[in-house]
Design brief:
Blueprint lengths: L9 H26 L4 H32 L3 H55 L5 H10 L13 H5 L1
Helix pairs in contact: 2-3
């Protein structure tokens, strides 16, 4: 569609065309969002990626709004800035909590594994010290290992030497 610079309705036609194509683009985005089906493995990465993007975008908007509010403050802009600042800090806090939770879980796994290894070592040491077997088995083992010693008994008569 060509737009004539002298035609005052040309801008309106262009605006209507943008609105019509914009609604189909929005519908495409909505359908794409509905198609997102995440399993447990991908969910955490999805959250991290989107939370990071959201935080980065919010910080960028905060920088722009900060300059705008500082230049010409009005109540609505200051309230909007405060709400955006609160939402951004909440998002950062949630991301920090997720990181802390993951670190805590990893540390607990390491500590639990160390505890299991220590108990296993203690049990192995205790089992080496114990005799395993019944009384009859131990008695039979002693009888098998017995060796006969030939000994000659010599009497030493010390009483004769002293008289």
């Amino acid at each position: 569609m060509t737009i004539d610079a002298d035609d005052p309705l040309g801008d309106v036609d262009e605006l209507i065309e943008q609105l019509q194509t914009g609604s189909t683009e929005v519908n495409d985005l909505v359908q794409a969002a509905e198609k997102i089906n995440l399993d447990r493995k991908d969910l955490e990465q999805f959250i991290l990626d989107n939370q990071g993007t959201l935080i980065q975008d919010s910080v960028n908007v905060l920088q722009i709004m900060k300059q705008y509010v500082a230049a010409a403050p009005n109540a609505e802009d200051v309230a909007s800035f405060a709400e955006l600042l609160k939402a951004t800090s909440t998002a950062i806090d949630n991301l920090a909590k997720l990181h802390t939770s993951r670190e805590r879980t990893d540390t607990q796994k390491i500590i639990k594994q160390m505890d299991i290894d220590a108990k296993k070592t203690i049990n192995d040491d205790n089992n080496k010290m114990k005799l395993i077997g019944t009384r009859d088995e131990i008695y039979k083992k002693l009888l098998e290992d017995i060796t006969v010693v030939d000994a000659e008994v010599v009497e030493n008569d010390d009483t004769k030497d002293q008289s």
